Amino acid sequence: MENPEKFKDNLANGERISVFQAESSASGSPPGTPGSQRTALILALCALIALVGWLGWQVYGRGTPLTPLTWEELAPPPEAAMRPWTHLVIHHSDSRKDSVASIDRWHRQKGWDGIGYHLVIGNGVNMGLGIVEPTFRWRNQREGAHAGGGEQGRPYNQLGIGICLIGKFNEEAPDPVQEARLAELCALLIRHVPTLSAARIIGHRDVPGKGTDCPGQLLDVERIRYLVRQRLAGAGD
Ligand SMILES: [Zn+2]
């Protein structure tokens, strides 16, 4: 059997150790104590989380270096004869988290045969910032379903290229990268589609008879026309 006196001594030592530890953490942990190790671990963990977040942002979001759009990647296949487009109709998705796939699902639920727009520009949430994605309507040179179903909207659906920017531009302005990409895309289309011009860039709200504020109060279509004219005038651009 253990000596009861020795047991008491051990207990007393243990208590003394506990008191010493409590005092040392109360008086600010000197280097090497468990408290400072914990702080260092938490800091290292925070740094790791920040690094992973930053890398993700670099790869998928704002930091992704965008290569200039080329007609080769945008041109419809030769068998799809170019429609005699008359307008570029700008829209917003009125949401921050959409993509071609999610809009396609939504428009199919309405009974349409797929996404109503011809081209979509991402905002860096579920589609990379400034990424331009042509849809089946553009690739097959099909008429759009974006300018309204009425008589007045019909010519804009048949001959208007529907470009949708993911975003909610009644609440926040488009990211400058996304705005620049829109101007780049419009300029490229105007260069290759002879029936288009900067003056023929309109907002969805400009379609006669439409009671909509799409593409949102904070997307300035006149500024887009200005940026497009600058690009068209730029040498070699
Ligand atoms: Zn619209």
What does this protein structure show overall?
The chain has 237 residues and is of the alpha/beta class. The protein has 2 domains: 4-60, no CATH class; 81-233, Peptidoglycan recognition protein-like (Lysozyme-like), CATH 3.40.80. 44% of the residues lie in helices and 9% in strands. The protein has helices at 4-26, 34-60, 71-74, 100-109, 136-139, 154-159, 176-192, 221-233; strands at 87-92, 119-121, 132-134, 160-165, 201-203. It binds zinc ion. Zinc ion is lined by residues 91, 204, 214.
In short:
By secondary structure, the protein is α/β, with parallel strands linked by helices. The protein is built from 8 helices and 5 strands; from the N terminus they run αααβαββααβαβα. Residues 1-29 have low confidence and may be disordered.
Radius of gyration: 30 Å
Work out the helicity level.
40-55%
Corresponding CATH superfamily of the largest domain = Peptidoglycan recognition protein-like
Instruction: Report the sheet with the most strands, covering strand number, pairing sense and barrel closure.
Output: 5 strands, mixed
- Please work out how many helical segments DSSP would assign: 8
CATH topology of the largest domain: Lysozyme-like
Strand order of the largest sheet: 3-2-4-1-5
Please, what is the average pLDDT?
A: 85
CATH class of the largest domain: Alpha Beta
Gross morphology is elongated
Range of strand content = 5-15%
- Bound small-molecule species: zinc ion
Give the distance, in angstroms, between the N- and C-terminal Cα atoms.
Answer: 93 Å
List SSEs in N-to-C order.
Answer: HHHEHEEHHEHEH
Classify the secondary structure makeup into a structural class: alpha/beta
- Tally the structural domains: 2
Give the total of beta strands: 5
Any guess at the CATH architecture of the largest domain? 3-Layer(aba) Sandwich
Can you tell me the residue ranges where pLDDT is under 50 for at least 5 consecutive residues? 1-29
